[in-house]
């Protein structure tokens, strides 16, 4: 019966033989290849050698870059020393040396140039600062002024003080020709700031405030309203009153029957509650006929109504 289990057809026997042959071939190849490549694959020595060689190449490149940078730096240093070798204020290293020789001579700090300051023993950066100060209009009027220069030590200032000779500065006195006129009368509802400033006592600030008040209210009804200008003192008002006049016809009136509550509230003589009350009254009653219609509103006093009257139109 066991023969039944080990019976193979011809094709199966050929396959078994081929499989065994391949197994034997693989075993032989494994031993053969390990014999030829043992030195290069056992411990990775070749890889480590190659890695070490690569690292050394990187180091050599960095060294080359460092050497090139050093050469460029030395070249710039030589160029700098060659440029300033005749300047006694610098040492051979290119830095300021307090022990370097300098010359003391009489000078005017308002006219001397930077080279002159350096010859006196003043640091170049300090000399540059002095020239910038002069360029902006700065003037040294005394030796004490020069002593305030930042960067000059008290010892150096004491050394230079006997040699400071400041020429007399001629101050040009300009005549303050006033453009104010005493024969002009301006109309407050039409004059611009330039014309208003012609009046003695009205400066730029007052002129702008007058125009601003005119734009907010619609215009001036009386000259006395100048007292409502911010900053207007009573003595100033009395001074400019004779030179001001008002044309009430130029007042821009507020059309009550079509103005919104926001428009009414924007007027300086209306507050929020008054503007709202007028708007609600108009909505309930319809078109308002005249200023007397506002007298029924408790939000207004008689003085406030009289003040508003020239500014309201009931068309």
TrEMBL record:
<keyword id="KW-0472">Membrane</keyword>
<feature type="transmembrane region" description="Helical">
    <location>
        <begin position="12"/>
        <end position="33"/>
    </location>
</feature>
<keyword id="KW-1133">Transmembrane helix</keyword>
<dbReference type="InterPro" id="IPR051675">
    <property type="entry name" value="Endo/Exo/Phosphatase_dom_1"/>
</dbReference>
<dbReference type="GO" id="GO:0015627">
    <property type="term" value="C:type II protein secretion system complex"/>
</dbReference>
<dbReference type="GO" id="GO:0015628">
    <property type="term" value="P:protein secretion by the type II secretion system"/>
</dbReference>
<protein>
    <recommendedName>
        <fullName>Helix-hairpin-helix motif protein</fullName>
    </recommendedName>
</protein>
<dbReference type="InterPro" id="IPR010994">
    <property type="entry name" value="RuvA_2-like"/>
</dbReference>
<dbReference type="Pfam" id="PF12836">
    <property type="entry name" value="HHH_3"/>
</dbReference>
<keyword id="KW-0812">Transmembrane</keyword>
């Amino acid at each position: 019966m066991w023969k039944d289990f080990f019976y193979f057809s011809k094709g199966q026997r050929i396959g078994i033989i081929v499989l065994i042959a391949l197994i034997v071939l693989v075993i032989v190849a494994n031993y053969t290849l390990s014999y030829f490549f043992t030195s290069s694959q056992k411990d990775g020595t070749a890889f480590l050698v190659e890695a070490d060689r690569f690292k050394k190449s990187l180091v050599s490149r960095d060294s080359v870059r460092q050497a090139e940078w050093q050469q460029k730096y030395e070249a710039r240093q030589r160029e700098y020393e060659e440029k300033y070798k005749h300047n006694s204020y610098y040492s051979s290293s290119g830095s300021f040396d307090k022990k370097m020789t300098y010359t003391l001579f009489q000078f005017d700090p308002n006219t001397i140039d930077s080279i002159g300051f350096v010859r006196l023993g003043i640091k170049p950066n300090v000399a540059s600062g002095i020239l910038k100060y002069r360029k902006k209009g700065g003037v040294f009027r005394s030796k004490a002024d020069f002593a305030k220069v930042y960067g000059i030590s008290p010892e150096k200032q004491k050394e230079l003080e006997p040699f400071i000779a400041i020429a007399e500065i001629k101050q040009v006195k300009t005549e303050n020709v006033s453009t104010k006129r005493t024969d002009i009368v301006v109309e407050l509802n039409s004059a611009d700031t330039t014309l208003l400033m012609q009046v003695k006592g009205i400066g730029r600030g007052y002129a702008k405030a007058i125009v601003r008040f005119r734009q907010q209210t619609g215009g001036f009804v009386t000259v006395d309203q100048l007292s409502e200008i911010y900053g207007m003192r009573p003595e100033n008002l009395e001074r400019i009153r004779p030179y001001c006049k008002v044309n009430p016809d130029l007042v821009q009136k507020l059309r009550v029957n079509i103005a919104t509550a926001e428009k009414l509230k924007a007027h300086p003589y209306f507050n929020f509650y008054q503007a709202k009350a007028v708007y609600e009254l108009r909505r309930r009653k319809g078109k308002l006929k005249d200023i007397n219609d506002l007298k029924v509103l408790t939000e207004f006093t008689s003085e406030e109504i009289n003040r508003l009257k020239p500014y309201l139109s009931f068309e």
